[in-house]
Amino acid sequence: MVSLDEVARTAGVSSATVSRALSGRGHVSPATRDRVLEAAEQLGYVVSSAASSLASGRSRSIGVMTPDLHRWFFNSVLTGISDTLTRAGFDLTLYNVTSDPQLRHEIFRAFLQRRRVDGVIVLALELDDWEAEQLKQLDLPVIVLGGALQDLPSMSVNDQGLIRLAAEHLLSLGHRNIGYIGGDQAFDADYHVPTQRREGFSEALRDFGVEPHVQLSRAADFTIAGGYQVAKQLFGSPAAAMTGLVAASDEMAIGALLAAKDLGVQVPHQVSVVGVDGHELGELFGLTTVDQHPVGQGRTAAEHILGRVEGRGNGDVELPFELVVRSTSAAPSQAVDGSP
Whole-prediction pTM value? Predict the structure, then answer.
């Protein structure tokens, strides 16, 4: 096995310089770092994580706690976190914190207490007082991504603002009979995202002097299939002439587009559709959306936790979002909204 000293001799620098260049800690000129990296690659040198941990007192790993490993949004955020950590020479230790109370207790009581991570990112997971206290007792940097948790540093997007922007886009185009597909109660546990988005939608309509139509509101499970099923109900309802539809996730919005196609509903001529999230499939479907940059959220969270590991503190962060207008939204057709 190639040693650090061999890399130093090949690069013509000291072993301490090699250590700084490979770890990213301490000052090394760009030219010297490139020379060290070239020598390490040439010799096939691989940093020993065990030796690095002993020397630095760090594991060079960041723990990420997430409630779900299967949904697109969480996977996108994890992609951003993983990419950033890898570039910084850190590993990612993943904790899938489900609703199972026994498993949750074991993660906080035993797994985290082993201190095999240098910091923790809590992803869209609301913790009770005991769980939050266990995190604090670790005496490690912690960042909460997706909500606020006691006095721990947080990074979050304004969920009411997200959906308001989506609804205001349709309202500004002239739509008044606007349907809504939100998240059902099963997803309201952590930070009440479905409730916040539903309230943001209703507030936007009322600001324009429009009362939300109860009969044009449905709840689904944030999936394409769920959006498809409830959109079929909305498109088939004769209760009101719906000219616009806001979905609380892009996946549900895509489901609505598929339902419209199957039912012969023309988008956007008969109904405009707007989603929320910034799903990569949105561009393929021409979906107008409010992009909350989930991969970027992950990158930002990773950058901030690494900063805290290095002793650079930072306060709470409100994450950005933006309206991306594509082909699924337009002004309401006169034939549909009945205007002269």
Answer: 0.80
